[in-house]
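Batch 3, record 17
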Amino acid sequence: MDDLYRELILDRYKHPQKRGTLDPHDYSYEDDNPLCGDRIRIDVRMGADGRVADASFSGVGCAISQASADLLVESVVGKTLEEVKALSKGDVLEMLGIELGPVRLKCALLSLKVLKAGVYGVEEIEEELR
Amino acid sequence: MTNPIDLERMRAEFPILERETRPGVRLIYLDSAATSQKPRRVIEAMSSYYEQNNANIHRGVHRLAEESTAAFEDARRRIAGFVGAATPREIIFTRNATEAINLVSHSWGGANLNPGDVVLLTEMEHHSNIVPWQMLAAERGLRLEFVPVTDAGTLDLGAFRDLLGHSPRLVGFTQMSNMLGTINPVREMAQLAHQAGAVVLVDGAQSVPHMPVNVAELGVDFLAFSAHKMCGPTGVGVLYGREALLDSMPPFLGGGDMIKRVRLGEFKANDLPYKFEAGTPAIAEVIGFGAAVDFLSEIGMPAVQAHEQEIIGYTLERLAEVPGVRVYGPEAAQRGGVASFTLDGTHPHDVAQLLDDRGIAVRAGHHCAMPIHEKFGIPATTRASFYLYNTPAEVDRLVDALYHVKEIFS
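Prediction for the assembled complex:
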């Protein structure tokens, strides 16, 4: 009962750590899931050492989409671009710690899609997440 | 004379209402605007057809083909009677209401609309009565205009009169909004549209299942509706069209059954309604649709409407008690059995998911009506929609569950 709404997810939804926008930023991308009206923007700022100095997300959506964005964005700080590119669907689901059906999977993965599209290129992402 | 619905007997007709969605959790189905549940007799009419009569229709001379053809055409006759068509020739079977509207845009629109012509729709249309016209507009250079929706969730009829001044060739609108639940004054609007010289297309997907609809009384030229929202199966819908109009229109899809004669260089189209029914139709589904219409006729559409009026009135009352809930659309007297709402601080997907834990099936999203959601500045809503089998006790369970959602998200 209410498995999807574990403490972690509700806590991140209600009290996000990385909500906001970054200015200046090196990468920024925004996309939506028109089916449910979820919208996420992710900003990434790189440090001189070639690692992510800071990142943030903004947007609207369900608890799953917003919590996964918050967790994902937090996790990329300190990573190299190569490491960010290597993040997978499995990584996001592991952060959330829940099993998701096909509909809610889209909510959970929207932030990953946005992040990768920002640093990478949209077509390759679509291919990878298929 | 309207006899109220005996809810216990009514629910017993629908086998699915017995099921649990997880152990110990009985289904509460509040998603009938998406598709209704099916009574046993509709399911049985279809399986009995497959077990006893299955054959292709209209051509075979053997016994089964004759029986199938008779059952198919008899269903058409009953459906014609159900919406007050002058003749069964005015009932065209399509896959659904969407295809019925596409039939009008392709056939009537293709033959009659020219660059610069105006097609007048409304802001509360389902995508199925917007996109076909956008497609034709792009191809033909038409101008699409939209009757605005007021903050109260009704059509702005003053603006409607003004827009009729642009001499639209076609006026298309829903009889009942699938998001707001608003019931539009079809007769009055059709009359005004006709005075302005327009052809009138009504999307009846949400109204025909829930209230008495008579095309002659309403004075509409086209009416589109789907079987699956009115106790019938998926895969079949209807375009009602005034006979003279249908006669003047070119065929839609080409193939078998829609022709009288084919030579390698030409074809001659069949008579109505077959002219618009290319290929083998959904025979079992049409027969199931006939059983659904019999079922609804026996209950009586005034009784169906009265029951839903009661349920929606009670729903609006109970939802108003829940802090943070905002319901969109007009008061109960002007709406059908649909309540789309938002809950402060909680996304509709989360609401729907938590309701599902309690066996309550609702819809979350934009309900294929993105423009009207945009109008109200919301990306999505949660929608509870009702039918003749829903009870006030189910509304109570919905409200209890919403308090539970609030607790989780507080």
